[in-house]
Design goal:
By secondary structure, the protein is mainly alpha-helical. The protein has a single domain, classed as Four Helix Bundle (Hemerythrin (Met), subunit A), CATH 1.20.120. The protein is 45% helix and 4% strand. Helix 2 packs parallel to helix 3. It is globular, with a radius of gyration of 14 Å. The two termini are 28 Å apart.
């Protein structure tokens, strides 16, 4: 079943996209034909889009980046606590990707809409 679509500045659309990437990562993990880095890309995208949904809900402007650590820092600066990712206390490290506000020719920053 498909999710209801929302405008790209709506946090619900970012969560829809995050769920979609996570579903693709889960499905891909069952196929030996899928490269591990492609599976990781979708998992990272899911995390990135979910964090951006939180930032939009908080009314926090965020730069057009794909660095999870930078995005989580913005969440913390907005007064939200982020638990450690593992027993070492280290936070998540970001990769790169695209969000629903990415389209050809778009430059600059998004968020806090």
């Amino acid at each position: 079943m498909r999710n209801e679509r929302f405008p790209p500045d709506d946090p619900r659309e970012w969560m829809n996209r995050a769920r979609s990437n996570l579903a693709r990562a889960r499905i891909s993990s069952e196929s030996p034909e899928v490269y591990l880095e492609d599976l990781c890309f979708d998992a990272q995208q899911a995390a990135e889009k979910a964090i951006k949904a939180v930032l939009i809900c908080l009314g926090v402007w965020f730069p057009y980046v794909h660095d999870l650590t930078q995005l989580l820092t913005l969440v913390e600066q907005a007064g939200q606590s982020i638990p450690p990712a593992d027993s070492t206390g280290k936070k998540v490290i970001g990769l790169c990707g695209r969000g629903p506000l990415s389209w050809p020719g778009r430059t600059g920053n998004v968020g806090g809409i």
